[in-house]
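Deliverable D5.2: sample structural annotation.
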Amino acid sequence: MDPDHDAIEQAKARSTAQLMMRCGRLFDEIALARLRSTTGHPWRRAHTGLFPYIDLDGSRITEIAERAGVSKQAVAPLVAELVEWGALERIPDPSDGRARLIRFAVHPDGTHAIEEGLKVLGALEAEMAAAVGPDHWAALHAALTALLPPLAALHDEVL
């Protein structure tokens, strides 16, 4: 066995960033499994990974791709699947009649399709809050909320 193995494992265990990434991945995988079960669609991270880059009023595919740091060709088939599944819809761009915007689908009752996903996340959050205790969960939320602005600033600086 590599003599550095134990030291590396200990360093990983001490790393808050490593814990955040592991927890985020596990949380994401559970949420995706529940979406698959609930909707019957083969959800992948690539699908839900687009959601933070879509404005509620709609975004062009080129904007989504640019924000996500991928090509328009990578985004287009994912958007097509999400439109087919009823999660997204294409609407005319009011600023350019030739262009289309992608937005979260709006159901006849006025609710957005994104709300269904947020319910899945909310249920999972409630389970995790019960598992670690509401005080820990609230502290985690507060810490992540405080962490987001400096991370976003660093992101903008680096990219």
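Annotation notes: The longest strand covers residues 96-104. The chain has three domains: 1-41, 44-112, 120-159.
The annotation will be released with the project's public dataset once the embargo ends.
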